[in-house]
């Protein structure tokens, strides 16, 4: 039976619209909010770095809580969709006002509100994928999800960059993001059905559509949705309860994996946050052009997202991640010295390919260690460490840049962070995919 499992690409793509919306809005946010803060309010790099960690600070606090709470949210729409249906449209509307604020106080108020709302639906939207996908197929499914996220980033960097060139106030890129987020919400509501919601509706005697019956049967064939709804509602394990259920060796592997996740997101987040400032200051290009250069990284990630998941099913997730870490280090080292835009773009393409090897397989490794009941909690663990990196990294690099007065240190910082991630990854012994385990056995 396991050899005959096939991924439902169509349904997985519909789920990916949630990640598309999230990726697009963060790409716009990270590309243009630093520019607004520097040019409109004349803030220092350290100050900008601190402000850019607000989203990550809320993410560390609220995303694990929201993920764990969504595990226990049993409704006719499912576990995750109620959180998404409230959080996504509210954050989209608030996002529209960020570039329209002309005082630092009003700008900060809108940024805080936006990031608080975003932190309440991101873990649930990511937990949708493992909810409807068997363990054996999650790397492949995560490739599809990240392909959708890559499309969101491409739209943000390329079309957002084009809009920014002719719009000094930067209102148009934010308007574009709001419209696409709302369109993504409509797609999710229309097409996504969670197994728990379908089971509950059928239990209540509601007639399901032919498509819903098919999705429910597919979930049952995969062994998904086989949980006690009443017991789930009563479950009071707390945020660390699922972690405590692991064996000693599994806990050790999970902690090393989460440490690796912290460091590779430290390296990635610094580049994503400060590349526009690096390019405008060191390469002499406009903020719009800098955003479009960064498109090459996202485009390469987009192209290799699905192949990365497929390859992980053949050779294992850990090998793919280690390959990605070694590769991205090799790609970024020359960026310490280069100022040629063509060569920089080529190396960013290589970096994007290897980043796909890392990013596509990291969440599946984390949730591989738990059961269906606790997927939201483990997704929260993943985001706790990735967003902790996003808190520390912008502040730390902002301080380093202010001390050195040199943006070229950006890639030295990134290389060191990826190197530490590689070191921790060598100690991870659990969380690889099913196929790799059966080969070893």
Structural notes for this entry:
The protein is mainly alpha-helical and 441 residues long. It has a single domain, classed as MFS general substrate transporter like domains (Growth Hormone, Chain: A, Up-down Bundle), CATH 1.20.1250. The chain is built from 19 helices and no strands. It has helices at residues 9-41, 45-51, 54-71, 81-95, 104-118, 122-132, 138-165, 171-191, 195-203, 210-221, 229-234, 241-244, 248-283, 287-315, 317-332, 341-367, 375-404, 409-425, 434-440. Helix 2 (45-51) packs antiparallel against helix 17 and helix 4 (81-95) packs antiparallel against helix 5 (104-118). The relative contact order is 0.16. The model is unreliable at 434-441 (pLDDT under 50).
